[in-house]
Design brief:
Length: 310
């Protein structure tokens, strides 16, 4: 069978080349533009019949991107792709997973149902699973929620200082504890109170290692940056000599990255899930095996059915 094809709607996604190389895929070519009224025009220029097609999408600020993505997925199906899968290293619409106030729309569920109707599988990294414990609760297609920990570990292994990993809140314990175990570094977990999108308080436990180790604030996502800013301030108050921040996903709303650097973080790094100047951690080695598993028919599948999904 021909190699899989990777399609994107956005140029310059930092994961595109390493991912294609890791799974030995070709680049799928499309023409994508907007009509003067803003509607999408899409044309698939690569022959796709019988080939596995992978959509690599940056779903940070997704509303403008989502409809063209659905069109492309459906177009690939209609034009004969063997399968169409989505790699969304950052999976959007994972926060409104419940109606907190009467009348609120549970967008997580609707987003997942819409996507499930258009693609055959979804691969993502560290989605915001909080009240929803597994993507299978809202997606009706095969999903893989991978951990960014191995990629973060490879990066941390190259930092030659005694490190102290710092999780801002209980939610971060899962990532921080896994990373601490993988890197043999000690860790502490703070207590976060969030009173609004931009109103966050973080308290850290007293720990003598804060004053002599390089503190590494670890979180799954930096959005407004307030969680990291408050953690950074608490570390500085406790005498931390050097603070670096490592996050899987860097959204950096309202120039949050600049605020974090101005507040005294010596280094700010993220994975290459969302394009940006702080991408230093490659997720391709984490994502590639999951794609290969999803598009490889189980052993014993007859030759005639090899273009189909397992
Ligand atoms: C919280 O549940 C997450 O793990 C992050 O700590 C949070 O989403 C970061 O948001 P912000 O940068 O807006 O404080």
């Amino acid at each position: 069978m021909s190699p899989p094809l990777v399609f994107t709607l956005e140029n310059g996604l930092p994961l595109n080349t390493p991912l294609r190389q890791a799974i030995c895929a070709d680049s799928g070519v499309i023409e994508y533009r907007r009509f003067p009224d803003g509607e999408s025009y899409l044309r698939i220029l690569t022959a796709i019949t019988g080939r596995h097609c992978i959509l690599l999408a940056n779903l940070c600020r997704p509303d403008d991107k989502f409809l063209p993505l659905l069109y492309l997925a459906q177009g690939l199906h209609f034009q004969g792709a063997a399968s169409v899968g989505l790699v969304a290293p950052y999976l959007s619409y994972m926060r409104q997973d419940k109606a907190f106030l009467p009348g609120e729309v549970v967008t997580s569920r609707i987003f997942a149902e819409t996507l499930s109707a258009s693609v055959d599988w979804v691969v993502t990294v560290d989605p915001h699973l909080h009240r929803i414990h597994s993507l299978d609760e809202i997606y009706s297609i095969p999903t893989r929620a991978l951990s960014g920990t191995p990629a973060l570990k490879s990066w941390l292994d190259r930092q030659h200082h005694p490190l102290l990993l710092v999780g801002p809140d209980e939610e971060s314990r899962q990532w921080v504890a896994a990373l601490a175990e993988a890197t043999n570094a000690p860790f502490i977990i703070g207590r976060k109170q969030r009173r609004g999108d931009r109103e966050v308080r973080v308290e850290l436990p007293k720990d003598s290692r804060i004053a002599c180790n390089t503190a590494v604030i670890v979180d799954d996502v930096i959005s407004s940056g307030h969680t990291v800013l408050q953690t950074l301030a608490a570390l500085k108050m406790a005498g931390a000599p050097r603070v670096i921040c490592a996050s899987v996903h860097g959204i950096f709303a309202e120039s949050a990255d600049q605020k974090i650097l101005r507040a005294g973080a010596e280094l700010l790094v993220t994975s290459n899930s969302i394009p940006g100047k702080h991408c230093a951690i490659d997720l391709a080695p984490v994502i590639a095996p999951a794609i290969e598993e999803l598009i490889t028919p189980p052993a014993g599948t007859p030759q005639s059915a090899r273009g189909q999904l397992p």
